[in-house]
């Protein structure tokens, strides 16, 4: 079993009053902390109301160092980099600066399934939760999804959690150790946050297994180059359960004559890939990971099979919106990096008008050239600065249009697309130049399509 949870002293400062911050406040109050909340930006009215009802002191649009530096523990929002001078000062003083995941983990004895990766982690998390819940487990889902982990630990008692974990959340862990860790893949992403060094980003993802023991499990993509390199050069404690489209294993998941096979301790699960509700090789891998977790947690094979047959994915991930004049409009706003856009373009079976752009995170677009040449008839750049995209694809596509709003982008796509084409929003970039987040971007796309 996992080690006994430790208790911490009692002055908690929460930096950032978003979902994870306010969830941490709720849990902190329940556990007897004196809590102070500080946000450099504006705090949403609904969160202010919650803080006031809890009797918690808060400030917005500033960080009062005199109040913050007295903390015995600080929970930092994932959006705040470790390099911020205030965070550096806290660490110099020996004040633990942790993520919400680390803080909340101290107050639950639940079995944790932690899922990370550059792409596929949301789908794999939702798929896994769907199977476990349908299979009768008492299970919550949190992390990057829905209500914060801390809030759920404070307000509900469940025996299991499936957590979607970003590299930023993993950067703030010290003792956190999921019983089952899943790493879907590693491709360059958020490199602006890691000094543009891929090895630092890789190390961040592998923090998910740093505290695991021989009693724990690590499920990973054995086809992934960066994962293979790391495993070959580091000592790994948990039991390894790889998945692959090309290799076979005594323990793990693989393909055999278009069937997914999951083998764990002579227990075998088999399912045809043609029966999966979600199509594409990336979704075969997501299904392999989810099925492996479910096998470990003793879910019936018939339940796993039924759930994978009826799981239709998550909003903003290759989501069919509408067909207008025989043109299919597809919302893949969650594709915030090049590799996610690669999966989307690879899944297109006909000529595509591609809406791309936003805040570039150090993208290398050359990976996409073969798919652009094969499938993309026109590109619509949706961002404040589109120069890098225009330079990258100017030689691949004759028709490149710039748009400054989602409505403008969708109207441009409508005028270009012909019968049987696709219009695909798959931005390959972060959304923060024109939108609040990728959800806002996806919803604006769907709204603009419905108004055509």
TrEMBL record:
HAMAP family assigned: MurD
Mur ligase C-terminal domain ranges (all copies): 316-429
UniProt similarity note: Belongs to the MurCDEF family.
Protein purpose: Cell wall formation. Catalyzes the addition of glutamate to the nucleotide precursor UDP-N-acetylmuramoyl-L-alanine (UMA).
GO function terms (MF aspect): UDP-N-acetylmuramoylalanine-D-glutamate ligase activity
Name recorded for this polypeptide: UDP-N-acetylmuramoylalanine--D-glutamate ligase
EC category: ligase
Pfam families: Mur_ligase_C, Mur_ligase_M, MurD_N
Keywords per UniProt: ATP-binding, Cell cycle, Cell division, Cell shape, Cell wall biogenesis/degradation, Cytoplasm, Ligase, Nucleotide-binding, Peptidoglycan synthesis
Sequence positions that bind ATP: 117-123
UniProt keyword Transferase present: no
Catalytic activity: UDP-N-acetyl-alpha-D-muramoyl-L-alanine + D-glutamate + ATP = UDP-N-acetyl-alpha-D-muramoyl-L-alanyl-D-glutamate + ADP + phosphate + H(+)
Subcellular location: Cytoplasm
Major localization listed first in the record, in broad terms: cytoplasm
Residue ranges of every copy of the Mur ligase central domain listed in the record: 115-293
Pathway given in the UniProt record: Cell wall biogenesis; peptidoglycan biosynthesis
EC number: 6.3.2.9
UniProt cross-references to InterPro entries, sorted A to Z: Mur-like_cat_sf, Mur_ligase_C, Mur_ligase_C_dom_sf, Mur_ligase_cen, MurD
